[in-house]
Specification:
The strands form 2 sheets. A 5-stranded parallel β-sheet has the order 1-2-3-7-6, sandwiched between helices. It has a two-stranded antiparallel ribbon with strand order 4-5. The chain is of the alpha/beta class and 327 residues long. β4 and β5 form a beta hairpin. α1 crosses α11, α2 packs parallel to α8 and α5 packs parallel to α6. The radius of gyration is 19 Å and the shape is globular. 44% of the residues are buried. The protein contains 11 helices and 7 strands. Bound molecules: thiamine diphosphate. The site of thiamine diphosphate (TPP) has 15 residues, from β4.
Length: 327
């Protein structure tokens, strides 16, 4: 069987390999952070998205620079895919002067306007009305850019979520609401915080489509996002995509996650998004052993370089505390 030219998702072999690279890079970034934080090298709290990478790759792949993302604490990979280089991102986690916020915040609240990344706040759900506001701006400016806003299933129980979806539905705003349903909001399992099975069902109340999909299948996420992007760019309003997934680590690296069973974790690890996609690429003869080794080497070199750079980067000078103030 000859290697494919294009899949039914209209992705070329090169694009599929690029997706594979991002899955591996985002996994490696978080795995390294998990080690570095235990070594006391990271000044930020670390909330890994290990196990959830397919959501970020499937939603960010092919976004335009002008499209905005509103990422959350577990979505560092979306910064990388939107164009922040690994050195800057690692510096941000180390609290160094070379990071996005020059060492000013706990690493989770930075944005980069030029790259279409809106900085998050700590209040869960509060990024969603902001996303709706960005969508309203695009609509008023009559441009076909789209906002992709991430939130957890826990955040979907907060009032801000409902206000944002209602407003976006009424105004037909170009926003894609992406729920990362990883089954837990800190220690609270989803069945203890919601009386329905699917967050996706909530979209109907606000007059637009919601779909629940396998969030560990990067192509399923990509396909759902492409449909939502096309509708949003066409003026047909928002979509809610609920991605069912699981976070392998605790809520943050200091949480040992005693509230869940080893069996449950093992079951979800058997649905790891990376081997699933690897098997697909192997089946298409897109990913040869040589290619895989080359990509893995590139990922390792990128992470090693980012860590070396961040470790050697300067701390912010004290006098910097009074610069860049907004008054
Ligand atoms: C309004 C609000 N309530 C509580 C918190 C504390 N808190 C931070 S993350 C978190 C769990 C979030 O769960 P979920 O929304 O499902 O996202 P996940 O962390 O699972 O990705 C909680 C309770 C907060 N930041 N904001």
């Amino acid at each position: 069987m000859p290697p494919i030219k294009r899949t039914k998702f209209k992705l070329t072999a090169e694009q599929l390999l690029e997706m594979f690279y991002w899955l591996k890079l985002i996994r490696a970034f978080d795995e390294r952070l998990s080690i570095l934080v235990k070594q006391g090298k990271v000044r930020s709290g670390v909330y890994t998205g290990i196990g959830q990478e397919a959501i970020i790759v499937g939603t960010c792949f092919g976004l335009r620079q002008e499209d905005f993302i509103c990422p959350l604490h577990r979505d560092l990979g979306s910064f990388l895919m939107k164009g922040v280089d690994a050195r800057t991102m690692m510096s941000q986690m180390f609290g160094k002067a070379t990071g996005l916020s020059k060492g000013r915040d706990s690493a989770l609240h930075s944005g980069v306007t030029e790259l279409g990344i809106f900085g998050n706040t700590s209040m869960l759900g509060a990024n969603l009305p902001v996303a709706a506001g960005l969508g309203l701006t695009f609509k008023m400016e009559k441009v076909d850019h789209v906002v992709v806003a991430y939130f957890g299933e826990g955040a979907s129980n907060v009032g801000d979520f409902h206000e944002a979806l209602n407003f976006a539905g009424v105004q037909r705003l170009p926003v894609i609401f992406v729920c990362e349903n990883n089954q837990y909001a800190y220690s609270v399992p989803v069945e203890r915080s919601m009386a329905i099975d699917d967050v996706a069902d909530r979209a109907e109340s606000y007059g637009f489509d919601g779909v629940a999909i396998n969030g560990n299948d990067v192509l399923a996420v990509y396909q759902a996002t492409q449909g939502a992007l096309a509708r949003a760019r066409n003026g047909d309003g928002p979509t809610l995509i609920e991605c069912k997934t699981y976070r392998w680590h605790g809520h943050s690296e200091h949480d040992k996650a005693f509230y869940r069973t080893n069996e449950e974790l093992a079951m979800w690890k058997s649905r790891d998004p990376i081997p699933t996609f690897t098997a697909y690429l192997n089946g298409l003869q897109v990913l040869t052993d040589d290619k895989r080794q080359e990509i893995e080497a590139r990922v390792k070199a990128t992470i090693d370089d980012a860590v070396d750079f961040a470790a050697g980067a300067p701390d912010p000078p004290p006098e910097d505390a009074v610069t860049d103030l907004y008054a």
